[in-house]
């Protein structure tokens, strides 16, 4: 099958959308399909010999490292020349809307992947545009032939927007990379300055307003603990002041990231606008107990009291109580970590992308009429 993937983000940007597209491309290649990527630039023109066609872009205000695709005739021209069987719209909002129009003009069926709660993010940046953004997102997904959403909450959001032909499609986890076996005593000793009795509490992800990392301040004075923050982003300097006792590692990838995950004793996620929350899965695959807000994607990923703990969204006191339960109870940490690891053991990217290909095949066989 020939697949054009129109994505709002790709390398050199590293985020959830980029990582998902990368894994989709990897599996498509491994199973004999022919992908092509269209992405906002600048950036590499190929990934693993797969063409990456770059379109005009502009920097997003207050998030300069995130380029937004602009209308560009190269999108439709590329599709016409490549002649794909299906167009995959990865987290469509700007470039995805352009790709959708081009695919419709050419009569190519589309599968749209809902991945980013743009209206929720806008709220965190103080933008009063939630209703307008929701209308725009709903319009895109109503016009796609099929929409795949990662969680129960996101499916409910899309149903409320009138989106039809809606299916649940989660995310895979790299089980070869993330593993309890990656735990590293030397790294822990570096973090704790040699105090092996300290419980290491960690956050992994972008340091941006929508992730609400500042809420980790509720844990700053927990006795016998060390706070580690893995990642980078526009709030790095602010967080350095808000979390003066934390160890900031900067952005990590590959085996360095896997070692960091597995070397934590407790993983904490703070953001409440997650349609899925991939870092929860990666922590679970690493055998680390998870504490996450009872909102969005984590509601599907964390079975409270069995594979992790959920706390009341927006409550620093609830977050602190949940983390204290784990810092005070090594047996509970071990039990939740093991159960979480078992829960994700059947969520490989290979299985997840093979499921995605079945959705491609469904729209290729029976393209739907415009639902808008």
Automatic annotation (TrEMBL):
* A GO BP entry: carbohydrate derivative biosynthetic process
Tell me the keywords, alphabetical order. Glycosyltransferase, Transferase
CDD domains associated with the record = GT4-like (cd03814)
Name of a matching Pfam family = Glycos_transf_1
- Coiled-coil region: none
Domain called Glycosyl transferase family: residue spans: 196-340
Gene3D superfamilies with a match to the protein in the record: Glycogen Phosphorylase B
In what residue span(s) does the Glycosyltransferase subfamily 4-like N-terminal domain sit? 14-176
| GO MF term set | hexosyltransferase activity
Q: Tell me the PANTHER family matching this sequence.
A: SULFOQUINOVOSYL TRANSFERASE SQD2 (PTHR45947)
Q: Tell me what this protein is called.
A: GDP-mannose-dependent alpha-mannosyltransferase
Protein source organism:
Nocardioides daphniae
């Amino acid at each position: 099958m020939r697949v054009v993937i129109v994505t709002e983000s790709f390398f050199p940007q590293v985020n959830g959308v980029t990582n998902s597209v990368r894994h989709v491309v990897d599996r498509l290649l491994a199973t004999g399909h022919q992908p092509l990527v269209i992405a906002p630039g600048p950036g590499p023109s190929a990934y693993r010999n797969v063409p990456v066609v770059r379109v005009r872009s502009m920097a997003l205000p207050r998030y300069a490292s995130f380029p937004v695709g602009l209308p560009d005739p190269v999108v439709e021209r590329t599709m016409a020349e490549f002649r794909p069987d299906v167009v995959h719209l990865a987290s469509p909002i700007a470039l995805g809307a352009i790709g959708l129009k081009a695919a419709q003009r050419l009569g190519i069926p589309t599968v749209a992947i809902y991945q980013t709660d743009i209206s929720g993010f806008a709220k965190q940046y103080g933008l009063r545009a939630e209703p307008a953004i929701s209308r725009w997102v709903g319009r895109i997904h109503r016009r796609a032939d099929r929409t795949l959403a990662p969680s129960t909450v996101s499916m409910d959001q899309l149903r409320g927007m009138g989106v039809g032909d809606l299916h649940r499609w989660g995310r895979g986890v790299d089980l070869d990379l993330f593993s309890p076996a990656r735990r590293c005593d030397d790294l822990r000793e570096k973090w704790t300055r040699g105090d092996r009795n300290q419980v290491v509490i960690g956050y992994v992800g972008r340091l941006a307003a929508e992730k609400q990392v500042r809420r980790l301040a509720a844990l700053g004075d927990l006795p016998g603990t060390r706070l580690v923050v893995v990642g980078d982003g526009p709030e790095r300097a602010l967080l350095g002041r808000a979390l003066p006792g934390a160890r900031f590692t900067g952005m990590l990838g590959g085996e360095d990231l896997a070692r960091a995950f597995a070397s934590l004793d407790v993983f904490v996620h703070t953001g409440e606008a997650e349609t899925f929350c991939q870092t929860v899965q990666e922590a679970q695959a690493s055998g680390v107990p998870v504490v996450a807000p009872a909102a969005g994607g984590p509601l599907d990923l964390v079975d409270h009291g069995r594979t992790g703990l959920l706390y009341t969204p927006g409550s620093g006191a609830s977050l602190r109580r949940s983390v204290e339960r784990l810092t005070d109870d090594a047996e509970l940490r071990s039990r939740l970590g093991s159960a979480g690891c078992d829960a994700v053991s059947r969520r490989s990217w290979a299985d997840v992308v093979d499921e995605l290909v079945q959705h491609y095949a469904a729209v290729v066989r029976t393209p739907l009429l415009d639902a808008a």
